[in-house]
Hints:
single chain, 61% helix, mainly alpha
Amino acid sequence: MDxxxxxxxxxxxxxxxxxxxxxxxxxxxxxxxxxxxxAWEWLKYAEIPAYALMAMKKNQGADFIRRKGLRxxxxxxxxGKNWLEAN
Length: 87
């Protein structure tokens, strides 16, 4: 990831958020603005909870997570290194 996606938050809106919170808020703001590409780009930076990744895998499939390039460390820590490949 070379450059950051387009920002939709003001500095005031970023204030008080953790870095992960900024990524999530930017993703939501981009989606609300109709910029789905930026929304998914911001989400690539976010640390997504393991349970949310597992729900995404069950609903959208493992390839969806791979195509979107989402970080999976949280799920690997909970479900094991090969959780994405497991049935």
